[in-house]
Amino acid sequence: MKEVSAEQIDSTESGWPIEQLKGAVRSFIEDFSIEATPHALSELDSYPQFLAPGTTVYAAHPPKSSLDDVVDLAVRLQGMGYRTVPHLAVRRIESEAQLGRALTRLQKAGID
Predict the structure, then answer these.
(1) What is the model's pTM?
(2) In this predicted model, what pLDDT tens digit does every residue of 37-91 receive, in sequence order?
(3) Least packed by Cβ within 10 Å: which of 18, 21, 31, 61?
(4) What is the pLDDT of residues 26-44, one digit of tens each?
(5) Pick from 72, 66, 33, 38: which is nearest to 52 by CA?
(6) Left, alpha or beta for 64 (phi > 0: left; psi -120 to 50: alpha)?
(7) Strand order of the sheet with strand 33-36?
(8) Rounded CA gap, 21 and 44, in Å?
(9) Which of 55, 90, 85 is nearest to 73 (CA)?
(10) Coil, strand or helix: which one is 23?
């Protein structure tokens, strides 16, 4: 991703003073969310460079990922300080017991 400094933005093109433009951009992205998959576990260490604590991160349940994979991801994200929202794909849940174990782990990690 290419970084652009505030000085490189031509505020005359937008018609806004630079401080007002920066404020508008901050406001636009202030409450965004992002999705992570179990396949990206190796990349999680880079998240703090780009995501502030408290950012909502959805833990996806893609094909070929188990419920345990999703729970592992969600617990790790929560431990990193993110507001984690796990997606539990019902069609991939093998049993009521498996679901119970997953929900217990999520609850113990502070995930609602």
Answers:
(1) 0.74
(2) 999 889 999 999 988 899 999 999 999 999 999 999 999 999 999 999 999 999 9
(3) 31
(4) 787 777 779 999 998 899 9
(5) 33
(6) left
(7) 33-36, 56-59, 83-86
(8) 31
(9) 85
(10) helix
